[in-house]
Design brief:
heterodimer, A: mainly alpha, disordered N terminus, B: alpha/beta, Rossmann fold, 2 domains, eight-stranded mixed sheet, 12 strands, 31% helix, transmembrane helix (chain A), protein transport (chain A)
Chain lengths: 296, 331
């Protein structure tokens, strides 16, 4: 190790040092780039998609991809049973997947952080209450309960977000509670109390910044999970309703024509695969960077 | 005692544990006068830290204050609400922690940590906006300058891991002193530091005490530190005060066998080549103590009368000790 590595530059935080480790991991960076590409695709969908995703054209029903006989390069991934361009629908479908993934994780992480901090720092009956709720929710099978909720509330974007977030928050909550239990006993928390800091101040200002690293890692890993769950709900017809494009429902649409028109299901399936894989590998990289046990 | 800034009377702090009830502080009375430095000496577990944690209202469960009064600057601290108590901590009484290496938050810059105390307590700051930020920054730089940290402006942006141990101790003192408290409780401020830095930090505390006219309660187990820096000293043993008085008297003519034993066990150049005389035995278990003199089992001068409860006795005008040998009254 060079001397420069041992004496960090001014105002270098642990967070920043971890990020430097992360950016040094090539595979993780490549995957992070793929995730960014998906996000860009979702945000700029109207400019990127070659066609209107909902425009039907029965003359193009089940038209094969551009490179196959009967295909056209302007409909490069082919068309579905209603003659809609699959590429355009995948581009628009990314909006749903990524939006739901981000919103569910944001909501769940915020609730989870607050619940975890309260349980871990205040202890007593607050901890009892929150921990029991967490235990109970962990006992519910995720997808089955989400299906039940969706059946009860009816389909819709915000209903999906609720059906996924209601349980997702317990994961960051448990992580934060555990970290808080350790951190609250450290001297600097005691020192803050000795300087007259209030409980809210200690939780949000003294403890939170020190428990954030594992939460960021968990949030990214779980985001991949949430995207799969949304696709599953849409596949089962409980998610976003037609004609809005969603990867899960696109896979479901193609089921009936698997043998004659494999492209209808395959391409949205691949989109799910690539996005989830990229998020997972990128979050592994994050974990390696943030968790001291995994660094050399 | 007249002119007392902090006056603690008959404080009892107990811990209810599964093994039984531990009386960590048993009837302790302390007074800290304005502008003085009181040294509190004793072995680990003698109740020094718990006494002052009680003063700050920071005794952790399962511990609680059972009885006693704590009067600070004319106010009864035990009667304050948690909110009022928070306003006292940091502004009127500040405390530095034992371990400087872990007492600073690793996720916040040093400047932010000083600013927090000022934000919480300093009422002379402008209400809000750029003027307030500027005033906080100026006060922070001033504090770092006061504790002798060079190029304070750039140092404010740095994080604790970028400072050495001695510097972190100084920063902790700067944070503690940011609101000019009337009393600084320094809980073993030098344990984690090497000897040369220890001297610097203690010198610094003495200097600032003179400059700001505050009182200091210096908790330590180093009698040398006490001899050099404290006006008065209080020796604690197994939850009780066993001797208190002016430093020169207590160090020069200790009355309690425990204090005598402590002094005899310090190596010094004049006694080169001779064996050191440690105090034999161990501190008694604080669970289920008999009402006898607590030092009985280790005392070289013990006698039958020591099996009865022993009260503090006057050994001089301001010098008291908890031993029946004082005053010739040996029964």
């Amino acid at each position: 190790m060079s001397l420069a590595a041992e004496t960090p530059a001014a105002s270098e935080t642990i967070l920043r040092r971890n990020l430097a480790t992360f950016t040094g991991n090539r595979l993780a960076m490549l995957c992070a780039l793929i995730v960014v590409l998906f996000v860009v695709m979702a945000v700029f969908a109207p400019w990127i998609a070659p066609h209107d995703p909902n425009e039907t054209d029965l003359f193009r029903r089940l038209q094969p991809p551009g490179w196959m006989a009967g295909g056209e390069w302007s409909y490069v991934l082919g068309c579905d049973a209603l003659g809609r361009d699959i590429l355009s629908r995948i581009v628009y479908g990314a909006r749903i997947s990524i939006f739901i993934g981000i919103v569910v994780i944001l909501v769940a992480t915020t609730i989870g952080i607050l619940a975890g901090l309260a349980a871990g720092y205040l202890r007593g009956w607050v901890d009892m209450l929150i921990s029991r709720i967490v235990d109970i929710l962990l006992g519910f099978p995720y997808l089955i309960f989400a299906i039940g909720l969706m059946a009860m509330m009816g389909p819709g974007l915000w209903n999906i977000i609720f059906a996924l977030a209601y349980k997702e928050w317990v994961i960051p909550a448990r992580v934060v509670r555990g970290e808080t239990l350790v951190t609250r006993e450290l001297e600097y928390v005691e020192a803050a109390r000795a300087l007259g800091a209030s409980r809210g101040h200690i939780m949000l200002r003294e403890i939170l910044p020190n428990v954030l690293s594992p939460v960021i890692v968990v949030a990214t890993i779980r985001m991949a999970h949430v995207i799969i769950l949304e696709a599953s709900l849409s596949f089962l017809g409980l998610g976003v309703q037609p004609p809005t494009a969603s990867w899960g429902s696109m896979v479901a649409d193609g089921r009936a024509f698997m043998l004659e028109a494999w492209w209808v299901s395959t391409f949205p399936g691949l989109a799910i695969l690539f996005l989830v894989l990229a998020i997972n590998v990128a979050s592994q990289g994050l974990r390696d960077a943030f968790d001291p046990r995994f660094s050399e | 005692m007249k002119d007392a800034l902090l006056e603690v009377r008959d404080l009892r702090t107990v811990f209810e544990t599964r093994a039984g009830r531990i009386c960590a502080v048993d009837g302790v009375s302390v007074a800290v006068r304005r502008g003085e430095c009181l040294g509190i000496v004793g072995e680990s577990g003698s109740g020094k830290s718990v006494t002052f944690a009680s003063v700050m209202g920071l005794v952790k469960a399962p511990g609680r204050i059972e009885s006693g009064t704590i009067v600070f600057d004319g106010r009864d601290l035990r009667g304050l609400s948690p909110r009022q108590m928070r306003a006292v901590r940091g502004r009127d009484i500040a405390m530095t922690m034992q371990d400087a290496l872990t007492a600073l938050n690793p996720a916040l810059s040093v400047g932010e940590q000083i600013a927090e105390v000022l934000e919480a307590h300093d009422e002379t700051l402008p209400a809000r906006g750029a003027a307030r930020r500027k005033a906080i920054r100026k006060a922070s730089i001033e504090m770092l300058g006061l504790v002798g940290i060079p190029s304070a402006e750039t140092r404010l942006r740095q994080y604790p891991h970028e400072f050495s141990g001695g510097m972190r101790q100084r920063i902790m003192i700067a944070i503690a002193l940011a609101c000019r408290p009337k009393l600084l409780i320094a809980d073993e401020p030098t344990t984690a530091l090497d000897v040369t830095i220890q001297a610097q930090v203690l010198e610094l505390i003495s200097d600032i005490r003179a400059k700001l006219g505050m009182s200091v309660a210096l908790i330590t187990h180093d009698l040398g530190v006490v001899a050099e820096h404290c006006d008065r000293v209080m020796v604690m043993y197994a939850g009780q005060v066993v001797e208190e008085g002016p430093t020169t008297e207590v160090i020069g003519a200790p009355k309690h066998p425990y204090t005598q034993g402590l002094l005899a066990s310090i190596p010094r150049p004049a006694l080169r080549g001779q064996p050191i005389h440690p105090i034999e035995g161990q501190v008694p278990d604080l669970i289920g103590l008999a009402p006898q003199c607590r030092f009985y089992s280790r005392c070289t001068q013990r006698r039958e009368a020591c099996l009865a409860p022993v009260e503090m006795r006057a050994a001089g005008p301001a010098h008291n000790a908890r031993c029946i040998l004082i005053g010739g009254d040996e029964e």
